[in-house]
Amino acid sequence: MQSITLIGGLPGTGENAFLSVEADPGDQVVINVHRQLNVGQDGDVRGAPGALTVLNVLGRSQRITLGAKSFANVAILAPDRQVRMGNNTYGDAATVMTPICAKTAVLVGDVE
After folding, report:
1. DSSP state of 92
2. Shortest CA distance to 69 belongs to which of 3, 6, 11, 5?
3. Is 104 helix (H, G, I), strand (E, B) or coil?
4. Predicted pLDDT at 112
5. DSSP character at residue 13
6. What is the chain's Cα-based Rg?
7. DSSP class of residue 43?
8. Mean pLDDT, rounded, of the chain
9. 88 pLDDT more than 80
10. DSSP letters along 44-91, please?
């Protein structure tokens, strides 16, 4: 896959941009991302319950962004990239319930 970009959603409505990975319990799913991973405000990335899901972000290209009120419960493997997680000017937190392996991690504001 070249890029994953989840942008948008209607704040306060419960509607958001999302990626849901479907798999059976015990499965191991690896998604290789070659260019960009950007989970914007209200974005949601979810792996299947009981399955191991890894977003393997290759190379040294653009940074990875997990924006305000975003949610991720998949592992992010990006040893040559910067991962930026955090809030916007309104103080809305990013929620990350996942292991992250990155060259650098930047936490801005509230990150749960």
Report:
1. P
2. 11
3. strand
4. 57
5. T
6. 13
7. -
8. 83
9. no
10. EEEPPTTSEEEEEE-SS-SPEEE-TT-EE-SEEEEEEEEEEEE--TT-
pLDDT band at 66 (very low <50, low <70, confident <90, very high): confident
Q: CA geometry: angle at 107 spanning 64 and 14, to 5°?
A: 70
Q: How far is the C-alpha of 58 from the C-alpha of 109, rounded, in Å? A: 27
Band (pLDDT 50/70/90 cuts) for residue 63 is confident
How many CA atoms does the CB half-sphere of 57 hold within 13 Å? 27
pLDDT given at position 23: 95
Q: Which residues contact 104 (CB under 8 A, 6 or more apart)?
A: 82, 83
Q: Please check the confidence at residue 42 and state whether its pLDDT lies above 60.
A: yes
Whole-model pTM: value is 0.82
Query: Locate tokens 């970009």: which residue?
Result: 5
Q: What is the DSSP string of 16-36?
A: E-EEE----TT-EEEEEESSE
Task: Give the distance between the most distant pair of CA atoms in the chain.
Answer: 40
Instruction: Return the SS3 of 11.
Output: coil
